[in-house]
Amino acid sequence: MQATKEEVYKSIVRYLAVTTPMVDFKEFKEANVCDLVLPTILPVLYDFKEKAPRKRVTVMREKQVVSEDSEVGGFEEFVVMDVISIMAERNILIFEAKRESLGAAMGQCLLAMKDLRDGNKGGMIYGFVTTGDVWRMLSYDGATFQVTDRLFMVFDLMRDDKVKWIREYSLVVDCLYAALSKGGVKEDHVVVG
Predict the structure, then answer these.
(1) Which one, of 67, 173, 62, 74, lies nearest residue 120 by Cα?
(2) What's the CA gap between 37 and 97, in Å, rounded?
(3) Could you give the CA distance from residue 44 to residue 170 in angstroms, rounded to a whole number?
(4) Exposure string (b/e) for 33-61, b if CB count within 10 Å is 16 or more?
(5) 125-130 and 151-152 as β-strands: parallel, antiparallel, unpaired?
(6) Quick count: other Cβ atoms within 10 Å of Cβ 25?
């Protein structure tokens, strides 16, 4: 996981270096926040696919979420799913990015998580909300939503201190691995009589 954290660090630093002065999030627009999600998640997804038994995990951008009663919901910036076959997929986790606040992103993300879990017919669903510099991980098991404390991803002069980033700011990478490992998996309980 250390090598993946280094890749995420490098990807974020490169993205920020070519899009905005390090780190002036006042100038960030919502599109910048969405675009910052990709350099954060792609190295993790790539590494996960290479090492895990779930080889068909893929990310879709701007995926529309449809509820069980066929009501069309909003579009989620990113949805990660396990493609079972041409006609079947299991949703694992989603990302909602908002520039203005985590609260604005959280409401939309929680509703989408419920709809995605219902569509999976069970299992744990994970979500991440972000303003670019701050993230929160959410989980939903069908009964309870859980939310982590704020996870900080970037800091001033981050380009000059990879060790500090890996030690203090890379927790989102750990959370992504946990979500990819457990998300969308429906546990079958067998009763032995």
Answers:
(1) 67
(2) 8
(3) 12
(4) bbbbbbbbbebbbebbeeeeebeebebbe
(5) unpaired
(6) 16
pLDDT tens-digit series, residues 29-76: 777 788 888 899 999 988 988 887 766 777 776 665 555 554 545 666
Both tokens assigned to 35:
């675009």
Which of 10, 57, 74, 64 is CA-nearest to residue 185?
57
Question: 46: which 2 tokens?
Answer: 């790539």
Give φ, ψ of 34 to 5 degrees: -60, -45
Q: Which residue has the tokens 């859980």?
A: 146
Find the length of the chain.
193
Query: DSSP string of 76-135?
Result: EEEEEEEEEETTEEEEEEEEEE-SS-HHHHHHHHHHHHHHHHHHHTSS-EEEEEE-SSEE
Q: What is the three-class DSSP state of 12? A: helix
Residue whose structure tokens are 């910052």: 36
- Chain segment 117-167, per-residue pLDDT in tens: 888 888 888 999 998 889 999 999 999 999 999 999 998 889 999 999 999
Give CA torsion, residues 73, 75, 77, 80, to 10 deg.
Answer: 60
| Token duo for residue 190 | 């067998």
